[in-house]
Amino acid sequence: MNTTYMIITVVAVLVVVGILLALAFTRRTRTKRLRSQFGPEYDRTVESLGNEKIAQIELRERQKHVEELDIHPLSLADRARYLEDWTSVQSKFVDEPSQAIADADRLIMEVMQLRGYPVSDFEQRAADISVNYPGLVRNYRAARAIALRNGQGLADTEALRQALIYYRSLFSELLTIEPAFA
Asked: Are 100 and 90 in contact (CB under 8 A)?
């Protein structure tokens, strides 16, 4: 009987150790995948939430939310129209940089809305953008912060120029024929 109990105990310990190793491997794999997918946004989310596990839950929720949206590319006609609008915004920057930034911010929201992103809340827009365009979300946040300072008359021309560059990179991606996540 002692031998039987010893064998059962050893097997039970091995099963528990195996389960723990599998869980650790799964968690490490999930972390690696999320870090790879979200890039710097992964670290920003961990830092802002103060807990890696909670941040991972948040990032997975973002993915699930975006998957439920009907995000689609623009039609060729809409794309052409928005490219013209963007050219106008860039031209306006020379004489009216403040207004050009406000127009760029508005144009980004229009394109996002037309593509199927909800646009009522900036943080939700940034979170949604982070799923498909993780390399651009930091710049989008920076551009938005400059646009808000601009609205208060606190942004200098160099900051406005940088905001326009940030907006342009996101705008370009939003107008792609094939979405980055397809």
From this structure: yes
